[in-house]
Amino acid sequence: MDIRKDFADTIGRTPLIRLRRASELTGCEILAKCEFANPGGSIKDRTALGLLLDAEKIGALRPGGIIVEGTAGNTGIGLALLGASRGYRTIIVMPNTMSREKIDALRLTGAEVQLVPPALYSDPGHYSHTAQRRAQELNARDPGGAWFANQFDNIANREVHEATTGPEIFVQTGGGVDGFVCAAGTGGTLAGVGRFLKANKPGVTIALSDPAGSALASYVNTGELKTEGSSITEGIGYSRVTANFRDAPVDLAWSIADDESMPLVHALMAEEGLSVGGSSGVNVAGAIHLARTLGPGHTIVTVLADSGARYQAKIFNPEFLRAKNLPVPAWLDRAFPPVSG
To answer: Angle formed by the axes of helices 100-108 and 74-86, to 10°?
Structure first.
């Protein structure tokens, strides 16, 4: 019998799939970790589990306590589902610009969702700072009753990817991985996987695929945090170096514009049956760049971070795409014809 003991035990051990179009285009084997197959629907289930297990281990989260976190959505979903399975209440603070689908998914978990206007990290109104203050207010009334997960600067995030995601990729490729590339939000996935792969195969290349408007590609390439452009992708890209991203063993970085990543998202759906979100398009674009840098015959791994179902009103909405001057594939126009009068 193969029975998982609880919700937490269903997280991870996701399949690795060959991306046919990208592989044929580059002459490399481009493989993607299907993190949308996690029970909460994204790679952030791993992050949530790593943060929570660490909090329980060090006594920061006590039985019956309250989980508080600021998130673009997916980490919050993972924390809320894990919290429900372990007897914790969850409070999530997120920007009100995030997709309606993610906001609704969070509310369906039973979490309390507080929406705030988008703000720079330097602004006290930033969603992460707001979440931290909320936890402090709760603890003032009941000391030790609330735990601020702090996914950006809590290195339990990085450590869970070093302990799980990296080893899974290494085993699934038989140690044959030549390069790993993905975007960074908190930086936990890229840093954790990179640290494991570098320790076990020193010649591996680790690369960052960064959405336009983020400063991290500039930081990797020049040492300066400089931004240019903007992106409709959610949950990735940043303008500061988090504790998780600091010292990440990143060799290369590219800035990816929406008009490069969005067609890849739509092609994955139409040609390979893979419904994924915008960050996956950025990741696949980075994998193609890395494959061209290394040359044919190499094995490149990236991440399909979450499902396209969480972004239907945006990246699978022809009207939204046109408003952003982004290309609309013919099949999407047929699927969602304009609404008449």
So the answer is: 10
- Which is catalytic among the residues 5, 33, 44, 324? 44
DSSP tally for the chain: helices H, then strands E: 13, 10
φ, ψ of residue 314 in degrees (nearest 5): -110, -80
End-to-end CA distance of the chain: 57
What is the spatial distance between Cα 228 and Cα 258, in angstroms, rounded to a whole number? 13
Identify the sign of the CA torsion 103, 109, 110, 114. negative
User: Between the CA of residue 189 and those of 81, 127, 165, 313, 331, what are the distances in Å?
Assistant: 20, 21, 8, 27, 33
Beta bridge partners of 254: 209
Spatial neighbors of 320 by CB under 8 A, at least 6 apart, are: 313, 314
Determine whether 33 is an active site residue.
Answer: no
Q: Which amino acid is at 107?
A: R
Is the CB of residue 10 less than 8 Å from the CB of residue 46? Answer: no
User: Are β-strands 16-18 and 29-34 bridged in parallel, bridged antiparallel, or unpaired?
Assistant: antiparallel
268 contacts 262 by C-beta, under 8 angstroms: no
The answer to whether residues 239 and 254 touch, using CB atoms and an 8 Å cutoff, is no
d(CA 91, CA 159): 24
Q: pTM for the full model?
A: 0.96
pLDDT digits (tens, 9 = 90+) for 36-69: 999 999 999 999 999 999 999 999 999 999 999 9
Per-residue model confidence as pLDDT tens digits over 316-329: 999 999 999 999 99
CA dist 205 and 201 (Å) reads 9
